[in-house]
User: Fold this.
Amino acid sequence: MTTPTTKLEAVNSMLSTIGEAPVNSLTSGLVDAETAETILNEVSRGVQAHGWNFNSEPDYTVAPDTGGNVVLPTEVLRADLANSVTKYRSSKTEYIQRGNKMYDKVSHSYNIGSSLTLDVVVLLDFELCPEVARRYITVKSARIFQERVVGSDTLSAMNRNDETEALFALREMEGDNGDYNIFDDHSTARVLHRSIGTKVSNNGSSF
Assistant:
């Protein structure tokens, strides 16, 4: 029975691109296997940092510590004030992520002193990602691994074709699972609201 790609299988797939025999474990001691795993981790982090439906957490509340700092959990790659509370934004506060903490650009301080509801992107272990994402991460990692270790232009071109197909599949899954709607976007809604207001005003009514 076919099962989702494991991290070991991903590393062995990468090793195959340079003609290296597969290993039985991630602690084999083989230098090329260790290099492959390091690259796999780097690529996984980079791909997930983009932010996909499968690793995004809306309305994630983080309480301040005793010093008033809103410190993000270690697995958080990106954070922003949640869309559900953006209507409460004001000129008195503007929160952004700096390092592992939220920062108020208006008061120029990390001392926020209250809980924040955030939309966050989290880093998942490789084997917690959906198979389509694992496939893309593996193929992209294999291409980078081959380029660093062997440097064959021919193999690189072949791997890039596989990478493009894998990325297309990932984006297709994102479109299917994300249920995106332009009317959910804050900036789009603001434009529509302004347009409606203009039409009403032109009819002689205030808005």
